[in-house]
């Protein structure tokens, strides 16, 4: 047997063989006790994230704990942690408690929504689906899995709890009638936005895009741009004689201050793009970028185009994220899954980039929990909304209603 080279700090006797040494002494000896300079990681997000965490306060977290003890009563005598209440009234444990979005306060009195920076609102409506229903359970599914998250993002160095006053205002009452439900959604979105609060809308099928934009347009002086992440153009006038989830942007861009020139659709393609919608999209000359375009251009250039188009002469931008824009392998819980879409990282990078410039409202649509696996589709919908808010906080586009 041939003897090998001893590890640093070890000496082989004449009777020892290399494989007789302890594993730690023969494992990668050249990587120990070297004189090379260590790599500089101070500019990487891992290092910066640690630095940023130290700059965050904990005022709102402390208030939440104190409120929990006051309303939920002190813990049992055997509990050593003074922050644990008897009845759960906060974030922990993640597996229990009442599932508002992110365990936020439930705003029962909708008249007080103007006291908040952000209001999460459900639009549990799927009468506009043309294949698999189930998105009426989308808000419920996203609220449930949102309990997995904390309000803190490591890379961005943002704690939403310490930056924004947020609430869950509940769901819009959506009758099983397209016109009536759309009218209800318009009223709900307009009420939140006109109160000076950002609506974060949980769908529901994509037909709600039309009434949501209509509600935003009522509150905005000037034009409203639309950035739409999807695999489908959704620009038909009608589908099966109704305004279905294939139709929101035909009708939204007929609103006087929502011109088609300010509509940009990113990620379109595949085998589920009806020709009727394409024909109308061609006639109205909106901007369409396919997944191939995104791959060719890259995220930064794609964002540049999208923001330039949507914001040209506009006073506000509406953000629509259809969960089926992501490759079907990552989002099984949707009514129209399509392979070949975004990777989750790509979608989230686009959403954060759009949010840097600010938005007037955001919708996450087509999450259908009956088809989901381990809540992964709903989880991505939650992550999308939280990344958008964190990006807006990071770039000073939102906030200001928290008590000092």
Describe, in plain words, how this protein is organized in 3D.
Helix content is 33%, strand content 13%. It is an alpha/beta fold. The chain has one domain: Arginase, Chain A, CATH 3.40.800.10. Strand 9, helix 12 (344-355) and strand 10 (361-365) form a beta-alpha-beta unit. The longest helix is centred in the last third of the chain and has 19 residues, at 376-394. The protein is globular, with a radius of gyration of 25 Å. The chain starts with 22 loop residues before the first helix and ends in a 10-residue tail after the last helix.
Going by CATH, what is the homologous superfamily? Ureohydrolase domain
CATH architecture: 3-Layer(aba) Sandwich
Helical proportion, percent range? 25-40%
From the N-terminal CA to the C-terminal CA, the straight-line distance is 74 Å
Please state the average pLDDT score. 92
Biggest β-sheet description: 8 strands, parallel
Tell me the CATH topology: Arginase, Chain A
Helix-strand topology string: HHHEHEEHEHEHEHEHEHHEHEH
Number of DSSP-assigned strands = 10
Strand share of the residues? 5-15%
Shape, per Cα inertia axes: globular
CATH classification, class level? Alpha Beta
Given as residue ranges, the uncertain stretches (5+ residues, pLDDT < 50) are 1-5
Domain count: 1
Radius of gyration: 25 Å
Number of H/I helices: 13
Coarse structural class = alpha/beta
Strand order of the largest sheet: 4-1-5-10-9-6-7-8
